[in-house]
Design a protein that fits this description.
Two copies of one chain form a homodimer. Helix content of chain A is 35%, strand content 21%. The longest helix of chain A is centred in the first third of the chain and has 22 residues. Chain A is an alpha/beta fold. The radius of gyration of chain A is 25 Å and the shape is globular. Chain A folds into two domains: 150 residues, Rossmann fold (3-Layer(aba) Sandwich), CATH 3.40.50.2020; 148 residues, Rossmann fold, CATH 3.40.50. Chains A and B meet through strand 4, helix 7 and helix 8 of A and strand 4, helix 7 and helix 8 of B. Chain A: GO terms for molecular function: ATP binding; kinase activity; magnesium ion binding; ribose phosphate diphosphokinase activity.
Chain lengths: 408, 408
């Protein structure tokens, strides 16, 4: 019985291939894999030709990834070629099957992510509370995810929900899963992260510590997927026991800008140097305007540092918005300098205390007091619920980006 | 300058036996080492008097070290004798000076602790919030605590306040302090901690993980002081980077029972085997009654398993109370079996949703429907505020126990 599958793999699938040396390691890997993961044993009892074939191809892909990471493998070109060939022949089989858990706030986004591909399966968690207010949480069918790739879609919108989700995040990796990915679209932070005085406490750093201490699953450390993290220095907050994957919402904006009727008249404005540093490389095909906050006496005002908005449709780009004061100041200055239309994009629309209500919709000709469009992503579910179908707001979903990240 | 302090120390003890001389030589050497490491102490030994105190502290430290390590040390008896002698001669000088920080909920208890001794100094923290609801916290005069022993009095009464206090707990050890102690009188937990099914998530275990990951201060790992932890297994949740010190509120109860007019008629009742296992050794001087929950058909009721309450003043003892259902069931059964008075003691009065209101005061002759006394400690500050001056409740303060723990 054990001897049958490798032979099948060898003779049927690859007898016509030139790289016989590749086949021998592949076959060996199959044997090793077989002995380690008993969960797969029942899957190859049926001679179902197709699923067996898929299994072999996955192993080839894994080898290819390993060699790429290690950087020292003379067979690497052959492996890469083989993987590409395999992928093009059987595209759906190459997709990694992922079980995606979510919390109450992220249910809508999780459903969108699952709709992107058949490779992602949604599972729910029972979120309860004891009378004393502490979480009473249960993962149904926990044994059923053994050997599978697991992801959790988190939302840390307040201190209370962080403490509800941390126990789940710490528990999932220990359930004999193949890998664990934490998807945290918005990595939250208080605004002040400068540690200007000894005694300042950086909340984001503490959160990074909590995540760096996620137990390591049997398949290795947790991957953390997050979008447009606020301060560039925060990339260095994470320890070596977590693998942060920093993604961006800017590709969504660029795609959206191409669809505009005046897409050839767009200029991008950054409200400050920080936003410029963070995003200018991704948006270098657009004329750029950089604003700056300057101090005149006791007053802090926004001034155009470089660039010319005259006659253009300006899109102010930043990673997040809180009360929105900065964006509104920029809007006034840009309109005063001749912008014909003003829109805005932020990846994370935090808007505490319903501050999104400050942003009116410009239906034509009033750039100094309203916005033509205001794009946000769905990284902050509470805001999405508030501003849905309320111009000038428009939601650009991160679902496809997250779905792609889960295949890494 | 540097040469001056050791000689006076030596000559001061010239009347001691010869073995003490070797001790003094060693002590002198230790002094030099300590001096070169901790520049903060330099100014303190300019005066001759504080120098004496400094020497004595070192002797005490050595004595403790030898006791802890259990290494056979022929000088040990002399060390102990010397330490005792020193302590009796200069009691106030031996006390370790501790800076105690606290959170808003624990301010009252912190003030009581500081009132116990001159060696504890209170410092406050600025607890603010950003508009998005995340903590904006600042420790004033952070440089001023360098070289000092620091403690933080925490209260984890809800998931939200845990996340507010964790950043402080993670930040304090990094401020070049001599040692860090986290005082958490009540280690919170949901009630269910049995992991009966794969997929159950033990909240207390997650919290222990968070605390086990507190950064190590320059003076070593954090000490954690907690009282009457709920499940005995929770002692094993802590990793090696934290030093848990498990204390109990039972000594306070025993002292209080001695003051009662009918102190010779007291029997102790345990509502279940768990409470008996946890407390029976500390209360073995009292006649004991053990109750048990048994199932009759669909009904779960309380029955007396052993012991006789007839004619006695019964004190039901448990580590915590939530809604209080168990205590009330025990009360009924004990009264039905002839108890003349019924009181209760729990270390942690959680009482979610004002459930303390169920407990009436027995002013005489009604043990079946009310309690003579209901003692709780001040480990749950929210409850203390609610039940203050409301019979049958009486608060036994942990202040003296905590003050003593901070001297370890």
């Amino acid at each position: 019985m054990a001897a049958t599958p490798p032979l099948q793999s060898f003779s049927v699938l690859h007898s016509n291939k030139p790289s016989h040396s590749l086949l021998r390691p592949s076959s060996n890997k199959n044997r090793t894999f077989f002995s380690f993961t008993s969960n797969l044993r029942c899957e190859i009892k049926g001679f179902d030709f197709e699923s067996h074939r898929g299994w072999t191809i996955e192993r080839v892909s894994d080898m290819s990834k390993d060699s790429t990471n290690s950087h020292t493998n003379p067979s690497s070109p052959l492996l890469s070629v083989s993987a590409v060939t395999s992928a093009s022949q059987f595209p759906t089989k190459n997709a990694k099957k992922v079980v995606l858990f979510y919390c109450a706030e992220t249910k809508a986004l999780a459903e969108k992510i699952a709709a992107e591909t058949d490779a992602i399966e949604l599972r729910s968690i029972s979120w309860g509370k004891f009378p004393d207010g502490f979480p009473n949480i249960f993962i149904p069918n926990a044994q059923g995810i053994r050997g599978m790739h697991v992801a959790f879609l988190a939302s840390f919108s307040s201190p209370a929900v962080i403490f509800e989700q941390i126990p789940v995040i710490y528990a999932l990796p220990k359930l004999f899963i193949a890998s664990f990915t934490l998807v945290l679209p918005f990595f939250p932070t208080g605004t002040s992260e400068r540690m200007e005085d000894e005694g300042d406490i950086a909340t984001a750093f503490t959160l990074a510590r909590l995540l760096s201490n996620i137990p390591i699953s049997r398949g290795g450390p947790t991957s953390l997927v997050t979008f447009d993290i606020h301060a560039l220095q925060e990339r260095f907050y994470f320890g070596d026991n977590i693998l942060p994957c920093f993604e961006s919402g800017i590709p969504l904006l660029k795609r959206r800008l191409q669809d505009l009727p005046d897409s050839d008249n767009i200029s991008v404005a950054f409200p400050d140097d920080g936003a410029w540093k963070r995003f200018h490389k991704q948006l270098q095909h657009f004329p750029t305007i950089v604003c700056a906050k300057v101090r005149e006496g006791d007053q802090r005002i926004v001034r155009i540092k470089e660039g010319d908005p005259r006659g253009r449709h300006i899109v102010i780009v930043d990673d997040l918005v809180q009360s929105g004061g900065t964006l509104i100041e920029c809007q006034k200055v840009l309109a005063a300098h001749g912008a014909t239309k003003i829109s805005a994009y932020v990846t994370h629309g935090i808007f505490p205390n319903k501050s999104w209500a400050r942003f009116g919709h410009d239906n034509g000709g009033h750039p100094e007091s309203a916005f033509t469009y205001f794009w946000i992503t769905d990284s902050c579910p509470l805001t999405v619920k508030d501003v849905m179908n309320r111009p000038p707001f428009e939601i650009l979903s991160l679902a496809s980006s997250i779905s792609a990240s889960l295949q890494i």
